[in-house]
Hints:
The chain is mainly alpha-helical. The protein is 51% helix and 11% strand.
Amino acid sequence: MSKGGAWDRGGCRMGVETPPRLALNIAEAAKAIGVSERHLRSMLPQIPHVNLGRRVVIPVGPFQEWLRARAEAGKGQVDATVDEIMESMRSTK
Length: 93
């Protein structure tokens, strides 16, 4: 071990807090939501992102909010479909 202190397996100094991630790259964001990088890139017009030269980064907070809003919208669609099915079952009795 060198004189610089202890390091963890991730290459960070132990006891030194790393700042929270502010943004993800395409590969990290795709992995986080379980889609391919190619699919995520096709969704970029809908996803909050920032172009930094030739790099694209996705801010964590807005990305989480976008995903939460998509989940809520999907839940509303599912609820409406369930209501429609239940209503059709009642009317056939």
